[in-house]
Design a protein that fits this description.
This protein is of the alpha/beta class. Helix content is 28%, strand content 22%.
């Protein structure tokens, strides 16, 4: 069909959506048995709001998720040195080593006044570290404020404001 056209170009994609440019790079805490709870996979919502995710390892086992090995592209030093603009804490395994690593990352983000977005049982963990009570599918902790997030549109609105 396009052979009849005078142009040598092939067919054009009309429904192509350009990716949203990254405006924030946030650390994603890689936990064994990672879970975003009722919110499901939130990566699409975050990317649609211009958030780039940089996996941070909490141990060797956390880097394998769903049979796929994930390369850690950020460290705690990136939080301390300002290269990350926030931290995302999903739910996951609650063994002592994992909890200690996640708590240390949340404390570091809090000390550097970065927002922490938590999901599933990560909400409880982050609320404890920030000294608040929170029970929701997700929550955003920033300094002394907590915003509860119970649906994807709520998450998009909160992330857009960061």
């Amino acid at each position: 069909m396009y052979a009849e056209r005078k142009s040598s170009a092939g067919p054009r994609r009309s429904g192509y959506n350009r990716p949203v440019p990254t405006r924030l790079r946030m650390g994603l805490v890689m936990r064994r048995d990672m879970d975003f709870g009722e919110m499901g996979d939130v990566e699409g919502v975050l990317r649609a709001e211009g958030v780039g995710l940089a996996p941070i390892s909490t141990g060797d086992a956390s880097l394998i998720t769903g049979g796929v090995t994930v390369l850690a592209t950020a460290t705690a030093a990136d939080i301390a040195e300002g290269r990350l603009k926030g931290l995302i804490v999903p739910g996951g395994a609650r063994d002592a080593a994992d909890l200690a690593a996640v708590q240390a990352l949340v404390d570091l983000a809090r000390a550097n006044r970065l927002p922490v977005i938590a999901f599933a049982d990560g909400v409880e963990l982050a609320a404890e570290r920030f000294g608040h009570a929170a029970e929701a599918a997700g929550a955003v902790f920033k300094e002394d404020q907590v915003k509860l997030v119970n649906a994807r549109p709520d998450l998009a609105a909160v992330v857009a404001g960061l």
